[in-house]
Amino acid sequence: MDVQIPKEPELSESEEDEEEEPVAGLSASEFTCHCCYQVLVDPTTLTCGHSFCRHCLANWWASARPRVRIDCPECRALWTGHPKVNILLRDAVEKLFPAEVNRRKQAILSDPGFCRILQAFQQYGNRQAPRAAPPQNPPPVNIGEFYSGVVTALTFMAMLVLLYHGFSADSSHEVLLSKPLSRWSTDDVTLWVEHLGVWTNQYQETFRREKLNGRLLIALSDEDLSAAPFSIENQSHRQIFLEELHRLKETRVSLNLWQYKDLYLGKALFLLISLRNFPRLTLLCLFLFNYEDIFLPFIHTCCPATPDAPTDTPLDWPSWSQWAEFLLMYFLLPYQLLAAFAWHWMSVHYWTAVIVIANAALLTALDVCFYWNLWKRGQMRTLPKLFWLQMFAVLFSTSVFVLLWPVVPLFIINFEIYIQLYVFPFANAVLVKRTLFPKDTQHRP
């Protein structure tokens, strides 16, 4: 497409007298376009350094249509990006030769062909803008996206830890520390006997032949073991069986969730409320005051021993590797300990365990956001004060249930337990959404 450069009308003698004289040794020839050989109008500088009128450059760009030319009209060097108007050169030319620049602009604007070419040239530049060089100042970081990435990473890591525990733990550990004792099958009892040591090989077949399950195992006594069909004549062997059985019943929660709630109603309510609000403090209290009843089976379940760990006292003091894993999760991701514990109850309480695991992930997100905001604002010193304020608020709001539960009607206690288990996860989900996405982003259409 060729568009002729419009020619301005010839100047009269008076107009020639009014034409600008050279300033400080500068002449119009030094500010001419090498396409039209007239004074530059909206001078556009290419990457090679040559400058041309913008409408001349647009005409050159469109001269090979339907293709376009992106080479310099003078040296044929390709330009990169989209040429911009040289503001400094434009201002200088307009100050030196205002009358001629104005006349040329009016002639260009009155030509429909040049207007169409300039419009197409500008639209081409707008389409090329996303591929331009990035700005010097990077855009501000979206805190919501950062939080979302952190929460996603933590949740993914927690799921990997749970899957690792689920597939790496051996079957003997699953039987000894996870499955309720009352639900043990004959194979489970035989596996427990095998776990006691090599000396039990002579008795394994007898336990299997008699089809002894978990309920019958609990009822065994010294007379039962010495009489037929077991006929264990070695007194030390019978004593070891009974001691291990007593330790099994005393050092682990062999009841399922609902049985434990029915037997220890107040303790179950206390654990549901305190673990949700103060997981670290609650686990510390359990370690100090309920070590054998609750803390020991808890740490064995959520941080199981490795298969090559010593098996002389499998249900007693945890190994150093268990303590290391527990303390790491205790300080960084305490709620994931609850998720790991719920994972081992998946076969007994599937949907309840799933809800507990999801709630643990949500509480972990809130915990991370809380400490991140404190650190970002430089308010870590206020952490003890905030801790005590939250503790007093929780005590005042739940003291009627935790402290006075024996005199509170049973249906109210059960209702509160179900609320803690099944309703608060949805409330935590809403709170996570409000934390990650502030109010100013929630009212978007």
Q: Can you walk me through this structure?
A:
This protein has helices at residues 13-18, 54-61, 87-96, 98-109, 112-128, 143-168, 171-177, 186-195, 201-209, 214-218, 222-226, 235-250, 257-263, 265-277, 279-289, 291-302, 320-332, 334-343, 350-377, 383-402, 410-436; strands at residues 44-45, 51-52, 84-85. It has 445 residues and is an all-alpha fold. The chain has three domains: 13-131, Zinc/RING finger domain, C3HC4 (zinc finger) (Herpes Virus-1); 149-169 and 257-438, no CATH class; 181-250, DNA polymerase, domain 1 (Orthogonal Bundle), CATH 1.10.150. The longest helix has 28 residues, at 350-377. The radius of gyration is 41 Å and the shape is elongated. The relative contact order is 0.07. Mean pLDDT is 75; it is low at 1-20, 169-178, 310-315 and 440-445. Keywords: Membrane, Metal-binding, Transmembrane, Transmembrane helix, Zinc, Zinc-finger.
List the helices and strands and how they pair.
Elements: H1 13-18, E1 44-45, E2 51-52, H2 54-61, E3 84-85, H3 87-96, H4 98-109, H5 112-128, H6 143-168, H7 171-177, H8 186-195, H9 201-209, H10 214-218, H11 222-226, H12 235-250, H13 257-263, H14 265-277, H15 279-289, H16 291-302, H17 320-332, H18 334-343, H19 350-377, H20 383-402, H21 410-436
Antiparallel strand pairs: 1-2, 1-3
